[in-house]
Design brief:
There is one protein chain. With about 350 residues, the protein is α/β, with parallel strands linked by helices. The chain has one domain (about 5-350): Aldolase class I (TIM Barrel). The chain is about 35% helix and about 15% strand. A hairpin with a 2-residue loop joins strand 1 (about 45-50) and strand 2.
Length: about 350
């Protein structure tokens, strides 16, 4: 962690979490944050669902909800970015406070509720995106929608021409009954509409499915089957959890989704299970609790073709991206892997 990151993180942690997040985005946009640019090597370069990436480290959705910092984030060292979630109409989300730091646990709880400026505003910014970056959009549904399943396809239709990939997010715990769309029949119908929209885009793009970590083995098997049948090009495992086991922070019982270090084991086990269920035929993106190069490597060895992080940035700052990338390169070299893809799934049995 750089000295500047230490100072910045210390200052920001003295401020209300949501306000601090807004200040961090503002500092990025103003050019006040030193950025390393592209971080890559022969070992780190990878291809995921047809997308060439400088490295397999991505920014998870939620950090830049409204796509306002695409240019600086594209120079922050990530191999790919995911912004959003975007809903068809703007919505304010849930009442504040709705973001909580759990410092003792290196974790975060949020109950934002898909607060965003809507697909039209977000699409206008995506139209001016940096062309050299790999950028995706997390698709969401309005809380008061009459047809939530159709909302995902509407956002994709409106924004798809400016994207490299899109993610169907049916796993946020902060929109009532949204997770019900992970059931086999509901998910199959939803994805059919999204994939029909994808096929009609001027340039069809990969569609990923983001799932919850709080699923039984039977539910995971259903999701794997529907993913195969629908033709989605990847699965993101996982979103935040509703579990609260082993937390030490005073705000640990706040309602919402828990992310950060406590999620690592749970999300990695789901990832490994999905890797086995899909026989490695569908690229998986590992998310949940990554805070070091070792964590990223564990996700890859459990079955992930790439990884994403967000919560660790609250505690470590953006310099963490370079630390993870360089450390991952060294771990791959240590174990004799010429590239990321050679390492994918090699440690899956350790998590089953």
């Amino acid at each position: 962690m750089s000295t500047l990151d230490k100072i910045g993180s210390t200052v920001l942690r003295c401020i209300d979490p949501e306000r601090a997040h807004g200040l961090a985005i503002g500092a990025l946009r103003l050019g006040l944050v030193p950025l390393p640019g592209v971080i890559t090597s022969e070992r780190l370069r990878c291809n995921v669902a047809g997308m060439d990436m400088h490295n397999p480290i991505g920014l998870a959705a939620g950090f830049d909800k409204n796509a306002v910092a695409l240019a600086p984030l594209s120079r922050a060292g990530f191999g790919f970015l995911e912004v959003g979630a975007a809903t068809p109409r703007p919505q304010p989300g849930n009442p504040r406070p709705r973001l909580f730091r759990l410092t003792k646990d290196r974790a975060v709880i949020n109950r934002f509720g898909f607060n965003n400026e809507g697909m039209k505003a977000i699409c206008a910014r995506l139209a001016n995106r940096p062309e050299s970056a790999v950028i995706g959009l997390n698709l969401g549904a309005n809380k008061d929608s009459d047809d939530r399943a159709a909302d995902f396809a509407r956002v994709l239709e409106h924004c798809g021409r400016h994207l490299d990939f899109a993610t169907v997010n049916v796993s946020s715990p902060n929109t009532e009954k949204l997770r019900d769309l992970q059931g086999r029949a509901a998910l199959a119908g939803l994805l059919a509409g999204v994939m029909e929209t994808q096929a009609a885009l001027p340039r069809p793009i990969p569609v990923f499915l983001k799932i919850a970590p709080d699923l039984s083995d039977a539910e995971l098997a259903d999701i794997a089957a529907v993913a195969r049948e629908s033709g989605v090009q990847g699965i993101i495992a996982t979103n935040t959890t509703l579990t609260r086991d082993g937390l030490n922070s005073p705000r640990g019982r706040e309602a919402g989704g828990l992310s950060g270090a406590p999620l690592f084991e749970q999300s990695t086990r789901v990832l490994a299970r999905l890797s086995a269920l899909t026989d490695g035929e569908i690229p998986l993106i590992g998310v949940g609790g990554i805070g070091s190069a070792g964590d990223a490597y564990e996700k890859i060895r459990a079955g992930a073709s790439a990884v994403q992080l967000y919560s660790a940035l609250v505690y470590r700052g953006l310099s963490l991206i370079g630390d993870i990338a360089r450390g991952l390169d060294q771990l791959l070299e240590r174990d004799g892997f010429a590239n990321v893809s050679e390492a994918v799934g090699t440690g899956r049995a350790d998590w089953q």
